[in-house]
Structures are given as structure tokens and as C-alpha cells.
Amino acid sequence: LLSSGYQPVDDPSDADVIVVNTCAFISEATEESIDTILELARHESESRCRYLVVAGCMAQRYAQDLEAALPEVDYFVGTGELDRIPALLKNRPAQKVFADLPGDIPRDHVPRVRSNSAFSAYLKISEGCNQRCTFCIIPTLRGPLRSRPVDSLVAEARALADQGVVELNVVSQDTNAYGMDIEPREGRPPLARLLRELARIDRLRWIRLLYMYPKRFPASLIDVIAKESRIVKYIDLPLQHIDSRVLRRMGRGVGGDRCRRLVALLRERIPGLALRTTFMVGFPGETDRAFQALLDFVQEVRFEHLGVFVFSPEEGTPAAELPGQIPEKEKRARQKALMEAQRRISRAHHVSLVGTVQEVLVEGYGEETHLLLQGRLSTQAPDVDGRVLINEGTATAGSMVPVKITRALDYDVIGHIVSPRSEPCSTSFPV
Prior knowledge:
Elements: E1 17-22, H1 27-41, H2 43-46, E2 51-56, H3 57-69, E3 75-77, H4 85-91, E4 97-98, E5 120-124, E6 126-127, H5 138-142, E7 146-147, H6 150-162, E8 167-171, H7 190-198, E9 206-209, H8 219-227, E10 231-236, H9 244-250, H10 256-269, E11 274-281, H11 288-301, E12 305-310, H12 328-353, E13 357-365, E14 373-376, E15 388-392, E16 400-408, E17 413-417
Parallel strand pairs: 1-2, 2-3, 3-4, 5-8, 8-9, 9-10, 10-11, 11-12, 15-17
Antiparallel strand pairs: 6-7, 13-14, 13-16, 14-15, 16-17
């Protein structure tokens, strides 16, 4: 769009074209997407908007139905056809839906315009998923696993580092399956080779791994994470459950014992590791005993970060048709109980940091007030894992400074900068 002469604006009332990128992973996300579309559609009559485009997963999944339900929308563009948008706006075809099966994903030669911070970026290493979890619609929306070549990813990472990025968040739908579609060699995971190459980029300080599926985690990959100093000791490992019967019905390909052994191995082999996981409660057939086993497991392992989903019976997934559906009230009660246990664990972890000095990536002014700065530890991923609130000292956004932790909150910590080497906080970086 930029290369076609468009420029981004902050206020939708100033936009000639509004593009809504949507999610359809669970029903709540679909509802939020529709609400957003309807809210923005008013700009077609109230301001200068001429075209409203709906893109992403909801367009991929429901485009034919939405075409009739949302006449306000000019075009629906699926997950594999975002590059069509400039041509659609120029040529204005009568056809409104473009949602064929997803194909190739962009490589490093495709221009990239980052819309978040200047110092932190995501590196999408593959698209799609070959797993067939019974609750998940992602393979339908995103297609099968398609990995980008190592050299393409390294080139993009180098370009990002040259632009000032110091934190690289490696992500995909199934990160440790990366490359298995192009280099399926047992014991020599392509992800390990990619990580070694990324760790050689001098300007990168933190390389973080997100969404590591527990089914495939060879020793050589663990060794790379443990040994490379630029790879932060943080793993996002979505386990979903610990009860083997529930995991089997989920189609996860791993049982509870294997999950336990993997967690223990990662803790043993990677000193100082912070683990983030997600669990799903209320899956069909989850008994009181199965939920209690999950609650006991959380209290035993004491994950540094944890999220809890309530099972959503998504149309087109096998799990939606399984017997033993759990009442919504019970699902919400289990979610609340698990998050309450995690709140206490999280606070205890933060209490253990009080009095220590930690390296913090400064993000800029606090969200609530410019009287504070905020940042993150290497063990806190963007947007999901809490913050470090800095109440004394100055620093530029994007700098890394030593902070002494002085107070623990449930999900955040408070501290002050202990080095005078930083400059006053600047808004030269978008935050």
C-alpha cells in the first residue's frame, strides 16, 4: 500500500481506506472482529472513507457468509492474499471475496514496514500447521506448514537489526516444527541451525522463542537455547492440559507423563529458564479429577507465566461434536480457580526478585502516567507477561539498563535505575 502511494493515518476518520485485520480462532475473537468492523463502517457515511476491507482469518473462514451479512464491506481478503489489496483498490472489481487456500508466505525481498516499536520486532519463520488438534481451526485458516529458508530469515533479521531492533521475537503457529517440511532430518532440527545463525547477529541482544509445541523438542535444540547467550532463557510452551485422557481427546500427540518429563528436562538443562504456558479448561470430558490434576500440576511446576483459555466449541472442529460438553458456568469457575493459583505463584516469583538488579529493556513512558517509565525483563514477552515499572532514573526507549527491583506486584514489578549512563526518556521511538 505504501509503495502504491498510500500513507498511514492514526485516526480512522482521516482514512480513505480502512483495512480491518481479523481473528477467528475462537468465537469471542470473531465477535470482537465483527464489532470492530461495524464500528469502523460508520466512517463510510460520516467521514472520508471510500473503501472498507476485511482481511485475515475471519475473512478466510466466513467470507461467503459475511458478504451477505456485511454489505458495508467492499472486499474480503483471506490470509494468503493480502498482496491483492492495492490492485483491488485500483481496479475495483465486482467480485468481493478473495479467500483461496493460503499459499507462499513473504520472504526477505518483500518490503516490510513495522508498525510497532523501533527496537522490538517479530520474525515469522513459518506459516500454517501440520498438527491436527481437535479444538483448533488454524490449519483450515492458515494451511499446512510452510517454512521460510534460513538464509531468507537471517537476511530479514539482519535488516531489522540494522534498523535498530535489539529484541527479536521468533514466532509461528508451531515454532519447533520449523523447517521439517523442507529439511526433515531427525536429530538435526533446522530451528537449531536458524537460531545459531540469528545469534551471530551482533546488534541483536535478545532472541525470544514463542509457541514451542511440546511434541518435538530434541536435545540439540535444547543445547542451542542453553548455550547461546543472545537467546533469552524463556520458552513459550503451550501444554493445554496435563491429564493424558484429555490430551488424547485434544489430539495433542503427547501425554501427561511426557509433558512432565519435558518440563523437568528444560528446567534442568537451561539454568534460569522462565516458562510460559497456556492451558485450556472445560474441554469435553474434563472431569473434576482431571481438572484437579491440572491445578496440582500448576502449583507443582510454578510456571513464571501462564494463560488460561476456556474451551470454545468451534464450528468445523471435531471437539465441537465430542460428548461430555462442560457447562459454561463450570468452565469459567475452573478458569478463575487456575488463574487465582497462578496469581499467587506469579507474586511469589516477583517477591524473589526484590533486591536484585535486573537488565531491563525500556519501552518508554508508563501506560498510565508519564511520571513512570516502563520496560520488560528478558523473561517477559511483549504484551502478555507483565512489566517493570521504573519510578526513578531516566532512559531512552529501546535502551537496556540495570534496574534494582524494589517492590513486587501480582504481575508487574517496580524498581529504579541504578546506573547514570542513560539519557532522558525520548519519544523518538514510537512506543
